[in-house]
Design goal:
Elements: H1 18-26, H2 33-54, H3 59-75, H4 89-108, H5 124-134, H6 141-167, H7 171-177, H8 190-197, H9 201-224, H10 233-245
Helix pairs in contact: 1-2, 2-3, 2-5, 2-6, 3-4, 6-7, 6-9, 6-10, 8-9
Length: about 250
Protein backbone atom coordinates (compact mmCIF):
# COMPACT_ATOMS: atom_id res chain seq x y z
CA UNK A 1 0.00 0.00 0.00
CA UNK A 2 1.30 3.43 -0.91
CA UNK A 3 2.53 5.70 1.87
CA UNK A 4 1.52 8.80 -0.08
CA UNK A 5 -1.57 9.28 2.05
CA UNK A 6 0.29 9.25 5.33
CA UNK A 7 1.60 12.45 6.92
CA UNK A 8 5.18 12.39 8.06
CA UNK A 9 5.61 12.90 11.78
CA UNK A 10 3.13 14.89 13.84
CA UNK A 11 0.85 13.72 16.61
CA UNK A 12 -0.92 11.16 14.44
CA UNK A 13 0.46 8.83 11.79
CA UNK A 14 -2.70 8.93 9.71
CA UNK A 15 -5.02 11.67 8.51
CA UNK A 16 -8.47 10.57 9.63
CA UNK A 17 -10.25 13.68 10.97
CA UNK A 18 -10.35 15.51 7.67
CA UNK A 19 -12.68 18.40 8.50
CA UNK A 20 -10.81 19.17 11.72
CA UNK A 21 -7.60 19.32 9.67
CA UNK A 22 -9.27 21.78 7.29
CA UNK A 23 -10.37 23.99 10.15
CA UNK A 24 -6.86 23.98 11.60
CA UNK A 25 -5.33 24.79 8.21
CA UNK A 26 -7.64 27.75 7.54
CA UNK A 27 -6.70 29.45 10.83
CA UNK A 28 -3.49 31.13 9.69
CA UNK A 29 -2.89 32.55 13.16
CA UNK A 30 -2.52 29.03 14.51
CA UNK A 31 0.97 27.53 14.77
CA UNK A 32 -0.59 24.28 13.52
CA UNK A 33 -1.79 25.79 10.24
CA UNK A 34 1.24 24.88 8.11
CA UNK A 35 1.35 21.32 9.45
CA UNK A 36 -2.38 20.94 8.79
CA UNK A 37 -2.00 22.07 5.19
CA UNK A 38 0.88 19.65 4.75
CA UNK A 39 -1.38 16.85 6.02
CA UNK A 40 -4.09 17.82 3.54
CA UNK A 41 -1.62 17.84 0.68
CA UNK A 42 -0.25 14.42 1.52
CA UNK A 43 -3.70 12.91 1.91
CA UNK A 44 -5.50 14.25 -1.15
CA UNK A 45 -3.11 15.38 -3.84
CA UNK A 46 -3.42 12.30 -6.05
CA UNK A 47 -7.20 12.39 -6.69
CA UNK A 48 -6.78 16.05 -7.65
CA UNK A 49 -3.76 15.31 -9.85
CA UNK A 50 -5.70 12.57 -11.65
CA UNK A 51 -8.57 15.02 -12.20
CA UNK A 52 -6.25 17.62 -13.77
CA UNK A 53 -4.63 15.01 -16.03
CA UNK A 54 -8.01 13.71 -17.17
CA UNK A 55 -8.96 17.30 -18.04
CA UNK A 56 -6.33 17.08 -20.75
CA UNK A 57 -3.35 18.79 -19.13
CA UNK A 58 0.07 17.26 -19.91
CA UNK A 59 2.00 15.71 -17.03
CA UNK A 60 4.39 18.64 -16.49
CA UNK A 61 1.54 21.18 -16.32
CA UNK A 62 -0.61 18.90 -14.15
CA UNK A 63 2.28 18.58 -11.70
CA UNK A 64 2.71 22.36 -11.57
CA UNK A 65 -1.02 22.96 -11.20
CA UNK A 66 -1.55 20.42 -8.44
CA UNK A 67 1.34 21.69 -6.38
CA UNK A 68 0.43 25.33 -6.95
CA UNK A 69 -3.19 24.66 -6.02
CA UNK A 70 -2.19 23.39 -2.59
CA UNK A 71 0.35 26.19 -2.17
CA UNK A 72 -2.46 28.69 -2.71
CA UNK A 73 -5.03 27.09 -0.45
CA UNK A 74 -3.82 29.32 2.35
CA UNK A 75 -2.18 32.12 0.37
CA UNK A 76 -5.41 32.91 -1.50
CA UNK A 77 -7.79 32.08 1.35
CA UNK A 78 -9.42 29.24 -0.58
CA UNK A 79 -10.02 27.53 2.76
CA UNK A 80 -12.03 30.50 4.04
CA UNK A 81 -15.02 29.05 2.20
CA UNK A 82 -14.61 25.64 3.82
CA UNK A 83 -16.97 24.82 6.65
CA UNK A 84 -18.09 21.39 7.76
CA UNK A 85 -21.75 22.36 7.76
CA UNK A 86 -21.52 23.18 4.04
CA UNK A 87 -21.29 19.55 2.94
CA UNK A 88 -18.80 17.04 1.70
CA UNK A 89 -15.08 17.77 1.87
CA UNK A 90 -14.71 15.76 -1.35
CA UNK A 91 -16.96 18.24 -3.15
CA UNK A 92 -15.33 21.30 -1.59
CA UNK A 93 -11.87 20.36 -2.83
CA UNK A 94 -13.08 19.58 -6.33
CA UNK A 95 -14.97 22.87 -6.61
CA UNK A 96 -11.95 24.78 -5.28
CA UNK A 97 -9.71 23.06 -7.82
CA UNK A 98 -12.07 23.84 -10.70
CA UNK A 99 -12.13 27.48 -9.63
CA UNK A 100 -8.35 27.52 -9.50
CA UNK A 101 -8.05 25.96 -12.95
CA UNK A 102 -10.48 28.48 -14.41
CA UNK A 103 -9.05 31.61 -12.79
CA UNK A 104 -5.43 30.98 -11.89
CA UNK A 105 -3.89 28.81 -14.59
CA UNK A 106 -2.37 31.59 -16.71
CA UNK A 107 -0.73 33.12 -13.69
CA UNK A 108 0.28 29.84 -12.08
CA UNK A 109 2.16 28.51 -15.10
CA UNK A 110 4.35 31.61 -15.19
CA UNK A 111 5.64 30.83 -11.72
CA UNK A 112 8.53 28.57 -10.90
CA UNK A 113 7.10 25.26 -9.67
CA UNK A 114 5.53 25.85 -6.26
CA UNK A 115 6.38 29.56 -6.17
CA UNK A 116 8.56 28.94 -3.14
CA UNK A 117 5.65 27.41 -1.24
CA UNK A 118 5.46 23.93 -2.73
CA UNK A 119 4.50 21.28 -0.16
CA UNK A 120 7.55 19.06 0.11
CA UNK A 121 5.57 15.85 0.29
CA UNK A 122 3.98 15.79 -3.18
CA UNK A 123 5.72 13.16 -5.29
CA UNK A 124 4.10 14.12 -8.58
CA UNK A 125 6.52 12.00 -10.61
CA UNK A 126 5.19 8.96 -8.78
CA UNK A 127 1.69 10.28 -9.37
CA UNK A 128 2.24 10.33 -13.12
CA UNK A 129 3.47 6.73 -13.07
CA UNK A 130 0.35 5.75 -11.16
CA UNK A 131 -1.89 7.73 -13.50
CA UNK A 132 -0.42 6.04 -16.56
CA UNK A 133 -0.98 2.63 -14.98
CA UNK A 134 -4.62 3.43 -14.20
CA UNK A 135 -5.65 5.57 -17.16
CA UNK A 136 -7.26 2.72 -19.10
CA UNK A 137 -10.46 2.92 -17.05
CA UNK A 138 -11.80 5.63 -19.38
CA UNK A 139 -13.73 7.47 -16.67
CA UNK A 140 -14.54 11.18 -17.13
CA UNK A 141 -12.60 13.59 -14.92
CA UNK A 142 -15.26 14.03 -12.21
CA UNK A 143 -15.90 10.31 -11.88
CA UNK A 144 -12.19 9.55 -11.90
CA UNK A 145 -11.68 12.05 -9.10
CA UNK A 146 -14.42 10.42 -7.01
CA UNK A 147 -12.96 6.96 -7.59
CA UNK A 148 -9.46 8.07 -6.59
CA UNK A 149 -10.96 9.82 -3.56
CA UNK A 150 -12.66 6.60 -2.48
CA UNK A 151 -9.42 4.70 -2.98
CA UNK A 152 -7.56 7.25 -0.88
CA UNK A 153 -10.00 6.73 2.01
CA UNK A 154 -9.62 2.98 1.51
CA UNK A 155 -5.83 3.25 1.71
CA UNK A 156 -6.07 5.33 4.86
CA UNK A 157 -8.40 2.78 6.42
CA UNK A 158 -6.07 -0.11 5.59
CA UNK A 159 -3.14 1.87 6.98
CA UNK A 160 -4.98 2.49 10.22
CA UNK A 161 -5.98 -1.16 10.50
CA UNK A 162 -2.42 -2.29 9.80
CA UNK A 163 -1.13 0.07 12.50
CA UNK A 164 -3.56 -1.34 15.05
CA UNK A 165 -2.44 -4.88 14.32
CA UNK A 166 1.21 -3.92 14.37
CA UNK A 167 0.74 -2.32 17.79
CA UNK A 168 -0.87 -5.56 18.98
CA UNK A 169 1.96 -7.68 17.57
CA UNK A 170 -0.31 -9.15 14.86
CA UNK A 171 1.26 -7.77 11.68
CA UNK A 172 1.66 -11.21 10.12
CA UNK A 173 -1.98 -12.05 10.81
CA UNK A 174 -3.11 -8.81 9.17
CA UNK A 175 -0.98 -9.38 6.07
CA UNK A 176 -2.47 -12.85 5.60
CA UNK A 177 -6.08 -11.78 6.12
CA UNK A 178 -6.18 -8.36 4.44
CA UNK A 179 -6.85 -9.92 1.05
CA UNK A 180 -10.34 -11.05 2.11
CA UNK A 181 -11.45 -7.81 3.75
CA UNK A 182 -13.70 -6.89 0.83
CA UNK A 183 -14.24 -10.35 -0.62
CA UNK A 184 -17.71 -11.86 -0.90
CA UNK A 185 -18.25 -14.28 1.97
CA UNK A 186 -18.84 -17.21 -0.36
CA UNK A 187 -15.46 -16.74 -2.04
CA UNK A 188 -13.30 -16.94 1.10
CA UNK A 189 -11.35 -20.20 1.33
CA UNK A 190 -11.29 -20.58 5.09
CA UNK A 191 -9.49 -23.92 4.99
CA UNK A 192 -6.47 -22.49 3.18
CA UNK A 193 -6.51 -19.37 5.30
CA UNK A 194 -6.65 -21.41 8.49
CA UNK A 195 -3.61 -23.39 7.39
CA UNK A 196 -1.68 -20.18 6.69
CA UNK A 197 -2.62 -18.78 10.10
CA UNK A 198 -1.95 -22.04 11.93
CA UNK A 199 -5.48 -22.04 13.31
CA UNK A 200 -8.55 -24.20 13.14
CA UNK A 201 -11.05 -23.24 10.47
CA UNK A 202 -13.46 -22.04 13.14
CA UNK A 203 -10.82 -19.80 14.69
CA UNK A 204 -9.89 -18.45 11.26
CA UNK A 205 -13.53 -17.53 10.65
CA UNK A 206 -13.53 -15.56 13.91
CA UNK A 207 -10.35 -13.72 12.92
CA UNK A 208 -11.80 -12.80 9.54
CA UNK A 209 -15.11 -11.71 11.03
CA UNK A 210 -13.41 -9.42 13.55
CA UNK A 211 -11.05 -7.92 10.99
CA UNK A 212 -13.81 -7.26 8.48
CA UNK A 213 -15.97 -5.69 11.18
CA UNK A 214 -13.16 -3.40 12.31
CA UNK A 215 -12.40 -2.50 8.70
CA UNK A 216 -16.02 -1.43 8.15
CA UNK A 217 -15.94 0.63 11.36
CA UNK A 218 -12.77 2.45 10.35
CA UNK A 219 -13.92 3.08 6.80
CA UNK A 220 -17.24 4.43 8.04
CA UNK A 221 -15.40 6.73 10.45
CA UNK A 222 -13.14 7.98 7.67
CA UNK A 223 -16.17 8.77 5.50
CA UNK A 224 -18.00 10.39 8.42
CA UNK A 225 -15.12 12.82 8.85
CA UNK A 226 -15.59 14.13 5.31
CA UNK A 227 -19.32 14.96 5.43
CA UNK A 228 -21.32 17.64 7.19
CA UNK A 229 -23.14 15.38 9.64
CA UNK A 230 -24.40 11.90 10.54
CA UNK A 231 -27.29 12.17 8.13
CA UNK A 232 -24.96 12.15 5.13
CA UNK A 233 -22.79 9.20 6.13
CA UNK A 234 -24.93 6.40 4.68
CA UNK A 235 -25.47 8.09 1.33
CA UNK A 236 -21.77 8.92 1.01
CA UNK A 237 -20.83 5.37 1.95
CA UNK A 238 -23.16 3.94 -0.67
CA UNK A 239 -21.84 6.31 -3.30
CA UNK A 240 -18.17 5.61 -2.60
CA UNK A 241 -18.66 1.84 -2.40
CA UNK A 242 -20.49 2.03 -5.71
CA UNK A 243 -17.64 3.99 -7.24
CA UNK A 244 -15.14 1.39 -5.97
CA UNK A 245 -17.23 -1.43 -7.41
CA UNK A 246 -17.09 0.03 -10.91
CA UNK A 247 -14.89 -1.80 -13.36
Amino acid sequence: MSDSTQPAGGPSQFVTTHWSVVLAAKDRSSPNSAAALEALCRAYWYPLYAFVRRQGQPACDAQDLTQEFFARLLAKDYLAAAAQEKGRFRTFLRVALKRFLANEWDRARRLKRGGGHTPRSLDTAMGEERYQAERGDGLPADRLYDRRWAMTLLEQTLGRLRAEHTAAGKTAEFERVKGVLMADRGTIEYGSLAAELGLSEGAARVVVHRLRKRFRELFRAAVADTVSGPGEVESELRYLVGVLDET
